[in-house]
Design a protein that fits this description.
With 87 residues, this protein is of the alpha+beta class. The protein is built from five helices and two strands, in the order βαααααβ. The chain has a single domain, classed as Orthogonal Bundle (434 Repressor (Amino-terminal Domain)).
């Protein structure tokens, strides 16, 4: 994935933590049930699956709100901005 520099030599990428949070909620990857997540969040199965597989490149507010309610967290717990500085 290409991420253009924010300014000369400084790059950033948004890290989706939803897969990690789902795995924690279910007690491990082997126990994950995306159909259950879909029912409890009210999101479509396709949306849940894309977030879980890390295939999301944009997010809308209603989806973020549903994730925040599901995990009882803030947006900053779902998404992180990882920066790489020169040097």
């Amino acid at each position: 994935m290409y991420n253009p520099p924010i300014k000369e030599g400084v790059y950033a990428v948004i890290v989706n933590r939803v897969p990690e949070l789902i795995n924690l909620k279910f007690g491990g990857i082997e126990n994950v049930n995306l159909s259950e997540v879909q029912r409890e969040t009210g999101l479509t199965y396709v949306t849940v699956s894309k977030w879980y597989k890390g295939q999301v490149d944009r997010a809308d507010f209603p989806t973020l709100v549903r994730w925040c309610i599901y995990f009882d967290c803030d947006v900053g717990d779902l998404l992180l901005c990882a920066r790489r500085m020169p040097g």
